[in-house]
Amino acid sequence: MSRVGAGLFSGLVLGRRPGLVPGGRRGRVFVGLVAGVLAGLLAGCGSEPVATSQAAEGAAPAAAGVASAAGADAGTASPAGAAPGGAAAPAAVPASLKFTGTTLDGKAFDAATMAGKPTILWFWAPWCATCASEAMSIADLQEEYAGKLNILGIAGMGNNKDMHEFVSDLEVGAVPHLDDEPGKLWKKFGIKEQSTYVILDKAGKVVVTGYLDDLQLTTKVKSLVA
Q: What dihedral angle (degrees, nearest 10) is formed by the CA atoms of 10, 15, 18, 22?
């Protein structure tokens, strides 16, 4: 007899718990029910339910393992055309932005970081009155189109101290500026005089080279960032 059958027999028929087996007619009926239950348990002991249960338990982990592997593969697959990790592919650097320089504070600057957006290259000199009049428009555009437009000041024809004073006095410090006193970048873009703009579209194509008044500059920028 199994441990389950023995437990039921001891607990129900022998009355190990006081008051469990009722007396009289009810007692005879109760004992008859217990005998039927025990007969069923004894008959069950002759079959092989344990083997069936073990087989089912063995199949379940295997199926779970297959499902887990499939889920892992589905989770790690990248969408077609997406860069690994979901990051956007970096913009190609056009020839117009393949240059480096030094900021007014002496830090290295790589123009390749501006690829993918319209860009204004503002060539100015610290003693230039026309450049000073352009400063307000530059500051306004920097504030209005931050994140959509690059603006880079390229200062020349003066010393670093005067360049710093120009930026501070005219409040264009939010725009990065390069110290090009030797004129390397001015020569690269063919700049002959200060207060000149070189404007690039988002692909890096030069669309403007020359002087623009405030209205012309603003209109051009709006068309490029639209």
A: 140
Amino acid found at 142: Q
Compute the average pLDDT of residues 94-119: 98
| pLDDT tens digits for range 123-158 | 999 999 999 999 999 999 999 999 999 999 999 999
Q: Give the integer Cα–Cα distance in Å for 187 and 202.
A: 23
Q: Where are the alpha helices (DSSP H) in the chain?
A: 3-8, 24-45, 49-76, 129-144, 160-169, 184-188, 214-225
And the tokens for 130? Answer: 């026309």
Domain boundaries, the chain: 3-74, 95-225
- Cα dihedral 209, 145, 171, 165 in deg (nearest 10): -40
Q: Summarize the confidence of residues 181-186 as an average pLDDT.
A: 97
User: Does residue 107 carry a pLDDT above 70?
Assistant: yes
Higher pLDDT, 36 or 214: 214
> Going by C-beta distance under 8 Å and a sequence separation of 6 or more, which residues neighbour residue 125?
131, 155, 156, 157, 158, 194, 195
Q: Using N-to-C axis directions, what is the helix angle for 129-144 and 214-225, rounded to 10°?
A: 30
Separation between Cα atoms, residue 160 and residue 13, nearest integer Å = 106
The percentage of residues in the chain with a pLDDT greater than 90, rounded to a whole number, is 59
Rounded CA-CA distance 176/128 in Å is 18
Q: Which CATH class is domain 95-225?
A: alpha beta
